[in-house]
Every structure is written in C-alpha cells, then in structure tokens.
Amino acid sequence: MVSIEPRSDEDLLAASEREPEAFGDFYRRHERGMLLFFLRRTSSAEVAADLTAEVFAAALGSAHRFRPGAKPAAAWLYGIANYKLASSYRRGRVEERARKRLQAEPLILTDDALERVEALADAERARKIVSDLLEQLPPDQQEAVRAHVLDERPYKEIATDLEISQAVVRQRVSRGLRSLRAGLGEESA
Amino acid sequence: MSERAVLPELEHLLVRAARRRAAPRANRRRWILAVAAAGMLLAGGAAAAATHVFLASGETAGGTFTIESKRVPVGRAAPGSICLQLRFSGRGTAYGCGSRPSRSQPFGLVIADPLDGGDERVVYGLVSEAVARVKLRSAVDSEIEAVTEPNEELWGRFFSMVAPNDGTLQLIGYGAGGQILARLGRIGSTSAPLRSKAEAVRRGDPAGFAPGVSAPQSYMYKGELIDPALSGRLGLACLQERAVFRCYDSEEEAEAAHPQRP
Questions:
Q1: Residues A40, A33: contact at Cβ < 8 Å?
Q2: Which of residues 107 through 146 in chain B touch A, CB cutoff 8 A?
C-alpha cells in the first residue's frame, strides 16, 4: 500500500508560483482558522471574510518571498493577519492593497456566503461550549463520550481498549450525554 | 485537504489570480548577472542616450528590467561620480549617481528602485573589492542575499537583488571569510536616509553610509503629485531625485531638463 503524505504548508507555498492549485490547497487548509481568527476579533462575518481575502491575497503576492526554515508558514500567515488587522483598526476599514496588486476580482459576499461564515462562528461557539462541558465530566465518562460520540468508535472497540464490558461503556456514554444535555440546557437558558 | 472551503468563491478568485501570476513566470530567469559597469542617488531618467554597459537583467512580478552603467549627467553629480540606470518594462529608465566604493566606505552607490510602486523593488549598487556578498534585511522580516560580481570596467563589485517594496531596509556587506565589513541603512528607522558618514555615526551606526538606500515613493508631474501607475499609463519619462520622481512628457524633455556630461 502506498501512503501519500500530505504536502507541508511550506511545500504548498513554494509550489504555488508554478502550480496555482497548490495555493488553493494552502487556502483550504487555513481558511477556517483564519475566518475564526477574525470572527473572534471583529464579531462580524463580513469583515472577517474581507480580512481573510486580503490576508490570502497578500500571502499569494509574497509567497515567492517566503523562506522556509525561518518560521513555520502558518506563523508567517498569521503574522500577515495580525498586520492586516492592526492596519484595518488604524484606518477604520479593511485594506484592499494586496487584492489590488494581484488584480484579483472583488469578492462578492452573498447572503449565502455570509451565512456560511456565521454558521462557522456558531459551530465554533457550540464546539467551545461542548468542549468546556466535556471537561467538567468525570474522566471515565469524558473518555467514553469522546471515543464513541466525537471519534465515532464502536462500543466493542472501546470496551476492548479499556478492558471493560460493552455494557459499562454504554452506561458511561449514556451518563455523560445526560450530563451534557443538562449542561447545554443551562447554557441556553 | 479535500474538505470544502467555507468560501469557495474566494478560493476560486485566489487560484485564478495565482494562475495569472504563474503564466508569465513559467520561464522566469531569476538573475543573470553579467557585470560590466557602475556612485549618491541623485537622478533617474528616461533616456538611454548615453554610452552604457549592460550589467544585469531580471524579472519582478510587474515586468522585466535591465541594469546598465550610464554617463554622468552634467551638473547633477560631483566629479568622479558614477551612474547606474535601471530600465523597467512599461516605465522606462531611472538612474542614480553617486560615489565609488572604497576600503573606508565599502558601500558606494546603492539604489533602491521602487519600479512602478508595486510590491517589489530592485536594490542594486557597487561595493568595494573586499565585499564578497551582500545581505538585505527589510522591515517585513525577510532576508535576501546576493553574491557580488567583479568587473574590470567598474570600481569595485556589482550586486543586485529583488526585494519587498515595504518599509526601510538594511544592507550588510560580508567579506569572503564571512566577516561583516559594512552596514548600510537601518531597519525600522522612520527618519530620512543617511546622507553622510558623520550622520551615520550620529545615528549610532558607525559603519553605515547610505546616500540613497531609500528610494522615493512620490511621483511629480507638472508640479503635482501623481499616482505612480499614471506615469506608466502615460509613458512619462521620470527622473529619480532624492525625495521624488520628477516626470516629463518625453525623454527629450527629461534630457533637456537634466543635460548629461559628454
């Protein structure tokens, strides 16, 4: 069997000059993180999308200047993000410089696109709540819920791993989920 | 990696822009240094009428360029100066004149040409014979190195490199053994470029002397500031002075305003 290692961020950036789709891969790998980075700081789906577009345009425009080894590509990308965010605060608007330099067509943000960004923010909030609640569960229930619900592993496999019966695993998952539901009820109340 | 993007429309725009960038770069020549000729950044010009010797050529994202030596213009540079010019596709030619490098002043003429105001500039110039390579550091956290090339018709060695057109920069000259011989310019300084050794010492950089390491970003045409892109669209001939590019309607007009030494 041949296993193909995913290309590193550094490889994707280096390849993007001659292989444009490589930049698409780099974009998809960091898009959610970047949108969430801006959503947390601006609380606006529109501004977050606009800043994300500007950051990736700047990254594309200077990908050929990125030097692997100095720092990870993700750190380099978030360095650009911090700069663009600070610059936007200073100017009171999102910069367009990088996109203009690329002569990139403007990003038209439809209601549908904005809803997807907002859904990402909602999912992130829900994930954070669930994660916080999970942390509050007893360790055995936490482990069982993570394994069965989040990692989608069958009861039998979990039972073998933990050297307990499937019935005990089911019981722990059931109790854990009940506590989570109760916690979520309190959160939304 | 196969996960669908939240904003696939943005992904498409970026990949399309990447394709446009990739197309002209397919057969990119990075740097062909064929050194021949090359001193204070004073003026640039659209004219290539003078005797000149090809030094180097290369490409940026915005176009191709060549660097040549140039005759010293009358009245625009001190006797003994040396001039270099850069010809950039779509913009024409800009030149600078300055001092020759020496043992006490390893960096001679250094020019940072902002081209058409895009995201890259070409930094080139002359260093003394002892300087084997030059490292450029810029405010945007990048480092670029160039090996210097000797030339029998020039004083010293020639170097050139494409650098980010963003903020101040610093050049460091290294000897063949890797020792630092000179520094030029300072990163993060918002003040004007250094104009003399004495000024460099006052600013705490005893090795530095930067007559022209920061290129002007403003373009003047008929007494008014204009968008750099306009000079390209109108095909203006622009002369690089210390603080501004001064543009004229034609090379003849530019040459008449800045006559050259025979």
A1: no
A2: 118-119, 140-143
Please give the model's pTM, rounded to 2 decimal places: 0.42
For B9, name the nearest residue in chain A, comparing CA atoms only: A107
Q: Collect all residues with Cβ–Cβ distance below 8 Å to B212 and sequence separation of at least 6.
A: B40, B41, B42, B96, B98, B109, B110, B111, B112, B193, B242
Mean pLDDT, rounded, of chain B:
69
Query: Residue B48: exposed, middle, or buried by beta-carbon count in 10 A (0-12, 13-18, 19+)?
Result: middle
Structure tokens at A78: 């978030």
B244 contacts B218 by C-beta, under 8 angstroms:
yes
In the chain, the amino acid numbered B165 is N
Amino acid at B200: A
C-alpha span between A181 and B145 (Å, rounded): 60
Q: Distances from the Cα of A78 to the Cαs of A7, A36, A163, B138, in angstroms?
A: 19, 12, 44, 18
DSSP for residue A64: G
pLDDT of residue B259: 56
- What distance in Å separates the CA atoms of residue B217 and residue B221, rounded to the nearest whole number? 13
Instruction: Give the model confidence (pLDDT) of B82-96 as tens digits.
Output: 788 888 876 677 777
Do the chains contact at A31 and B6, CB–CB below 8 Å? yes
> B192: burial class by Cβ within 10 Å (0-12, 13-18, 19+)?
exposed
Measured CA to CA in angstroms, residue B249 lies from B46, B88, B128, B223 at distances of 10, 17, 38, 13
Q: Sort out which chain A residues have CB atoms less than 8 A from B136's CB and list them.
A: none
